[in-house]
Amino acid sequence: MSTRLIVLASTSPRRRSLLNQIGLPFTVADPGEVETSTAPSPSTRAVENASKKVESVAAGHPHSIIIGADTIVVLGGKMLGKPRSKREAGEMLRNLRGVQHLVVTGLAVLDTDTGKTENRTVETRVFMRDIPDDELEAYVASGEPLGKAGGYAIQGSGAVFVERIEGCFFNVVGLPLPALYDILKGFGVDIWGERRASNIIFH
């Protein structure tokens, strides 16, 4: 069992919920407003953003394994962030409906004791149904699209707009659990041992 603290460098309730789902004890550190990458490649940008989140909290967390993640929606080569208004959310969804898009999540993991790092990207293809205007407008009015990459939440009521996906579902939510599990094993983290050792989930 690892004696190092697991730190999630994110205040996202969705990522926190996913880590809770697998029963891994962890704590949350707010990375604050980090300077975002301007790399032209979505995978590079996502990994660089995730790494910056990790770096922003590393100094305050010795003896820790820090997890950072960043999710980007890509449509026709254009990267979509989080809508800043309901109007912008509506525009995003109108562009996404009836077509397929890519969800890219960058993962960055750092062991602050050894300096060991590992970065990885995971891609999932999402196929959206042709959402009628009245449904789209009702969804935007609900407020759920705000703060979600691409303007929808597959883990929320936005799920009804997704016809199918190719790839990891958890990646679309914002934290690809199978890939993260594989990385953590390489850092000596035994999730099953952690679960046996403690029934307490820190959040």
Give a description of the structure.
The chain contains 7 helices and 7 strands, in the order βαβαββαββαβααα. It has 203 residues and is α/β, with parallel strands linked by helices. It has one domain (5-197): Maf protein. Strands 1, 2, 3, 4, 5, 6 and 7 form a 7-stranded mixed beta sheet that branches. α3 packs antiparallel against α4 (133-142). The protein is elongated.
Task: Sum this structure up briefly.
The protein is an alpha/beta fold. The protein is built from 7 helices and 7 strands, in the order E-H-E-H-E-E-H-E-E-H-E-H-H-H. The chain is elongated and about 50 Å long.
The secondary-structure element order is: EHEHEEHEEHEHHH
The percent range for strand residues is 15-25%
Q: Please work out how many helical segments DSSP would assign.
A: 7
CATH class: Alpha Beta
Largest sheet: 7 strands, mixed
- Ends apart, CA distance between termini: 20 Å
Low-confidence stretches are 199-203
Average pLDDT, rounded to a whole number, is 92
The overall strand count is 7
